[in-house]
Specification:
It is built from 16 helices and 17 strands. By secondary structure, it is of the alpha/beta class. The chain has 2 domains: 7-173, Rossmann fold (3-Layer(aba) Sandwich), CATH 3.40.50.1260; 186-380, Rossmann fold (3-Layer(aba) Sandwich). It has a 6-stranded parallel beta sheet. Strands 10-8-7-15-16-17 form a 6-stranded parallel beta sheet, sandwiched between helices. Strands 12-11-14 form a 3-stranded antiparallel beta sheet. Helix 14 (350-358) links the parallel strand 16 (344-348) and strand 17. The chain is globular. The structure holds adenosine-5'-diphosphate (ADP), 3-phosphoglyceric acid (3PG) and magnesium ion.
Length: 393
């Protein structure tokens, strides 16, 4: 993959620099920041910009508010956290574009920061609406792509703005490309991918690109449910994404053709209304009314057996609802096993990183990526929209 023009080549002193970051952090039930890896990882870039005398305007999305302003998805708690780390205020610009926003960014002095409110409050963001992209571009003179977790999205802030301003990549994006490229270029085999999580509709169609690249694919989390449903499993009251049968079928067919081993759960931990403890169930038969929440102990052992001789591992997506201690054992046991196995292990994803951290198991990994879907799409081996739009170095 070509190297992209690095931030260090930009003349930033006294200029307004629009920096797209991915502050879509995991949140607590009260809406606070549950894990600040995505904030910490961009601090080197932000400190560099400050030292170089840039006037930095940050932009990010948070959650999926769907083009409407929703106080629950405000970036306010995040800018507060960021201000603490930078040791200086980062005012939040609530009106994202227009005369007020322009006035606020024009007030910035060299070395100062401001952040635009959640871009997904505006419908034009996800549509990459040209008018919205132009209005954003008007706020800055240069653009820095530092939102690795969002480079797979062709949105106004990741692509539209970059088409309108001289673009550069930040230090995090550079590091991510180098780190993940190790999985693309001759990974040591066996290469095992462990996949789970909740963004099933996004991720399931991406699995096919791992066929052939990985030797074994282990599927847990909510991602496993459409596969189990396609096999005719009874999943009780478990919410299952529908309309994915064709994706499931074509993935399994591709895996068969290439000889890629695919493992699905054979047992699950389920939640039964009125009972505090998790119960076990066969993956083919979840009792009526019960909700599947984690892989079961037999599945953990089967996954571990496929990892024990691995040399390269890519993990994205918790294997269960690991924020709930009752449904953390699947992820915990598999990661604890992984920690004992030598090799190059990559953890990818905002929630995956957070869960590994909460379980005290980040030591199982040699590389932690801030991207989930972005890392998966990166592994397809094609240049992602948010990178393609930045000139080569
Ligand atoms: P990442 O951010 O690492 O890319 P996702 O956003 O796709 O991962 O999914 C993470 C979420 O998936 C976690 O919050 C976890 O609780 C949830 N999850 C995983 N398995 C299940 C399950 N079986 N039922 C409900 N939620 C699940
Ligand atoms: C992520 O958390 O994977 C990124 O921030 C992208 O979020 P999205 O899937 O809502 O576009
Ligand atoms: Mg996530």
């Amino acid at each position: 993959m070509p190297r992209k023009r690095p931030l260090t080549e930009a003349q930033v002193r006294g200029r307004r620099v629009l920096v797209r970051v991915d502050f879509n952090v995991p949140r607590t039930e009260e809406g606070g920041v549950a894990d600040d890896r995505r904030i910490l990882e961009v601090l080197p870039t932000l400190r560099y910009l400050r030292e170089e005398g840039a006037r930095t305007i940050l932009m990010s999305h948070l959650g999926r508010p769907g083009g409407r302003r929703d106080a629950a998805d405000s970036l306010r708690p995040i800018v507060q956290r960021l201000s603490g780390y930078l040791g200086q205020p980062v005012p939040l610009i609530e009106e994202i574009t227009g005369p007020k926003a322009i006035a606020e960014v024009e007030r910035l002095a060299d070395g100062e920061f401001a952040m635009l409110e959640n871009l997904r409050f505006v419908p034009g963001e996800e549509k990459n609406d040209p008018e919205f992209a132009a209005a954003l571009a008007q706020l800055g003179e240069l653009f820095v792509e530092e939102a690795f977790g969002s480079v797979h999205r062709a949105h106004a802030s990741t692509v539209g703005v970059a088409q309108r301003l001289p673009g550069y990549v930040g230090f995090l994006v550079e590091r991510e490309v180098v780190g993940l490229s190790k999985l693309l270029e001759a990974p040591e085999r066996p290469f095992v991918a462990i996949l789970g999580g909740a963004k099933v509709r996004d991720k399931l169609p991406l699995l096919k690109s791992l066929v052939g690249r990985a030797d074994r694919i282990l599927i847990g989390g909510a991602l496993a449910f459409p596969f189990l449903a396609a096999q005719g499993a009874e999943l009780g009251a478990t919410p299952v994404e529908t309309g994915l049968d064709e994706e499931v079928r074509s993935f399994l067919e591709a895996a068969r053709a290439k000889g890629t081993l695919v493992l699905l759960p054979v047992d699950l931990l389920v939640e039964i209304a009125g009972r505090r403890e998790a119960e076990s169930a066969a993956a083919s038969l979840v009792p009526a009314g019960a909700i599947a929440r984690d892989i079961g102990p037999l599945t953990r052992d089967r996954f571990y057996a496929q990892l024990s001789d691995s040399r390269t591992v890519f993990w994205n997506g918790p294997l269960g609802l690991a924020e709930d201690p009752r449904f953390a054992p699947g992820t915990r046991e598999v990661l604890a096993g992984l920690a004992t196995i030598p090799g190059f292990h990559v953890c990818a994803g905002g929630d995956s990183g957070r869960i590994a951290e909460d379980l005290g198991l980040t030591g199982a990994f040699q590389y932690l990526s801030t991207g989930g879907g972005a890392a998966l799409e990166f592994l397809e081996g094609r240049e992602l929209p948010g990178l393609a739009v930045i000139p080569d170095a």
